UniProtKB/TrEMBL annotation:
GO CC, any one term: plasma membrane
Organism: Actinoplanes italicus
Source organism superkingdom: Bacteria
This protein's name: Alkylation response protein AidB-like acyl-CoA dehydrogenase
Keyword entries, A-Z: FAD, Flavoprotein
Cofactor(s) essential for the protein: FAD
Family the entry assigns: Belongs to the acyl-CoA dehydrogenase family.
GO molecular function terms listed in the Swiss-Prot or TrEMBL record: acyl-CoA dehydrogenase activity; flavin adenine dinucleotide binding
Domain Acyl-CoA dehydrogenase/oxidase C-terminal: start-end pairs: 239-386
Length: 564
């Protein structure tokens, strides 16, 4: 189930993508673990990795839409997901330079500005990375309040002045997509997205704001000349371009989390099994066995959900925007699951998880970032809640969405249109997936909880006051998210029944835990609290199933170790 560099061969992709991804794995493995660890500790900028990418045309091939390039170039979410996972596997910092290139390109590929599109394609060909300059230090998620000010020059252009903060690749980016607002226009009509160049003399790099190998810059534009041909979007379209770019980009956080967990898991399971205490391997302890099994099962669930979400991304269109729910799910749910996976393993390997020459100590630090970036858990959960009524109660009919590994260009992602109207999006009936595996005891048990959740909303719906209380709503949101999570896991399937049932045993426990949390909220009514307690369930136990899944965990012992 897990990515293993020793055996990796993405035969489901076309020959060109397969070759490039294998070459990428080869690059990291040949360079080896000592270099990976040392450059992380020394916070060395990864020129060699970017030189490899430039030579192979990796970013150019994967990040140029078919309309703007030739040969194998296309925007293909399936292969981008593979790339994202591999980069996460070798380190969040490598992933990050790629990720912010994705974000920097978002406003360009959504723009009708052919000159900038051409420029971006050429820059990619020349091996450049990009940057996305939305955030400012004092405004955080509140992008309405931007202080990057554009003053008209009278010839269709502007001069831009202001400071951006937390901007990845801002030290080197060939093209920086910058969000600002006009000095002479009030409100949303005044927004502007424009393309800047970090090498321009009016672009002043201040510093790296993080203590990392990756470069998260703060920079200042001082009277930076923005020519008419540098403008990518204006008015509300600029705002939509910002949100739609984040929609495309934030999907990559789930695969980054998966890659990080996979590498950490090889180290953790191998270490625990080979470490002898009192004459027995650490894995002989029942609690260790349980923790490592939980970590493995949660990781497999992360993979199944994310893989299936790719299909919805690739099949999206104006009449099918279901991906807009599955996307914040990958961002919020899969990345927080990643934290749990690392926590479980760290409990087991304890001191080993601090050692500087492991991958694990880096994973333990870096996995924490993913739930917090590109929208916190709260922001994404609040978004997910908008879909809840239609998802649960008003299903619609759609053509089945197949597995999508075909070499298509996902061009719809760059013409997603206005970012509003989320509450009106309908979904196919979630019950179908659950019905299809009602034979598995824990799928059936979880289904009781899911049906009960619908009953809660019907009989004891949140009051007007509760609807305004985001703390209360988030507790509801966590319960809802589990139902969506389970649906796509079931749709993906393809794992043996014991493993699938084990995944749902965990979902039953998680639902019970979130129900207990709801029970404890001050805002929860007595009826809602009674419902919560009544829906705390035990998973259906099966010792032979536990043992079969444990054997899968043990199969990871020694299966991969990065070359020194
Ligand atoms: C390592 C790193 C790299 C980054 N890279 C980039 C980059 O390349 N380009 C870029 O533009 N930005 C980048 N960022 C900025 C990042 O996206 C910001 O974290 C983001 O703008 C949110 O700001 P904030 O984290 O300060 O949180 P704040 O916006 O200050 O939020 C604080 C709290 O308020 C809550 N909150 C805010 N809004 C809502 C809401 N609508 N509903 C519910 N709760 C809400 C949040 O959940 C959070 O708990 C990066 C940040 C870091 C740390």
């Amino acid at each position: 189930m897990l990515f293993n560099p020793n055996t990796y061969d993405p035969a489901h992709l076309d020959e060109g993508s397969r070759r490039l991804l294998r070459a990428l794995v080869g690059f990291f493995e040949e360079r080896g673990k000592n270099a990976l660890v040392k450059s992380y500790i020394d916070r060395t900028w990864y020129d060699d990795f970017l030189a490899f990418s430039a030579k192979e045309g990796l970013f150019a091939t994967f990040l140029t839409p078919a309309a703007d390039g030739d040969g194998d170039k296309r925007w293909d979410t399936a292969r981008n997901a593979e790339l994202s996972e591999i980069l996460g596997f070798y380190g969040l910092d490598y992933w990050y330079t790629w990720q912010v290139t994705v974000l920097g390109l978002g406003p360009v590929w959504q723009s009708a500005n052919t000159l900038q599109r051409q420029r971006a394609a050429e820059l990619l060909d020349d091996g450049h990375v990009m940057a996305f300059a939305l955030s400012e230090r004092s405004h955080g998620a509140d992008i309405y309040a931007t202080d990057m000010i554009l003053t008209p020059t009278g010839d269709g252009g502007f001069t831009a002045s202001g400071t951006k903060y937390y901007i990845g690749n801002g030290n080197v980016a060939g093209l920086v997509s910058v969000f600002g607002r006009r000095a002479d226009v009030e409100g949303p009509d005044g927004y502007v997205f424009f393309a800047a160049d970090s090498r321009h003399e009016n672009y002043h790099l201040i510093k790296n704001v993080v203590n990392k190998q990756m470069y998260v810059s703060t920079f200042e534009l001082r009277d930076y000349p923005v020519r008419e041909q540098d403008v990518l979007h204006t008015g509300k379209a600029a705002f939509d371009a910002a949100l739609n770019t984040v929609n495309v980009g934030k999907f990559n956080l789930c695969t980054a989390a998966i890659g990080i967990c996979e590498h950490a898991m090889y180290e953790a399971v191998t270490h625990a099994h080979r470490r002898m205490l009192y004459g027995r391997p650490v894995t002989a302890f029942p609690h260790v066995r349980r923790e490592l099994t939980d970590a493995y099962v949660r990781l497999v669930a992360m993979k199944l959900f994310s893989d299936r979400a790719v299909d919805y991304f690739r099949s999206a269109g104006p009449g099918d925007r279901r991906y807009l729910l599955f996307n914040p799910m990958t961002k919020m749910k899969v990345t927080t699951e990643g934290e749990k996976v690392v926590d479980l393993m760290w409990d087991v390997i304890a001191a080993k998880g601090f050692e500087a020459d492991t991958y694990f100590d880096k994973a333990a630090m870096d996995i924490r970032g993913l739930p917090k970036l590109e929208g916190t858990v709260h922001v994404n959960l609040a978004l997910i809640l908008k879909f809840m009524p239609n998802y649960l109660f008003h299903p619609a009919t759609y053509e089945p969405v197949p597995t999508r590994h075909d070499a298509a260009d996902d061009e719809f992602l760059f013409r997603q249109g206005p970012a509003r109207g989320l509450g009106a999006i309908q979904f196919h009936d979630w019950r179908t997936a659950y019905d299809s595996r009602a034979d598995l005891p824990n799928v059936a048990r979880f289904r009781e909880q899911a049906d009960g959740f619908c009953e809660l909303l019907r009989s004891h719906a949140p009051s007007d006051e509760q609807q305004k209380d985001l703390d209360f709503l988030l507790a509801i949101g966590h319960l809802f998210a589990l139902i969506v999570y389970g649906q796509l896991i079931l749709e993906k399937g393809g794992v043996d029944d014991r493993l699938l049932d084990e995944i749902f045993a965990i979902l039953v426990r998680d639902f019970s835990a979130y129900a207990t949390e709801l029970h404890g909220k001050t805002a929860t009514t007595d009826e809602q609290a009674a419902w919560a307690l009544a829906h705390v369930r035990r998973p259906v136990a099966d010792a032979s199933r536990d043992d079969a899944v444990w054997q899968q965990v043990l199969a990871l012992v020694g299966a991969y170790e990065m070359r020194p």
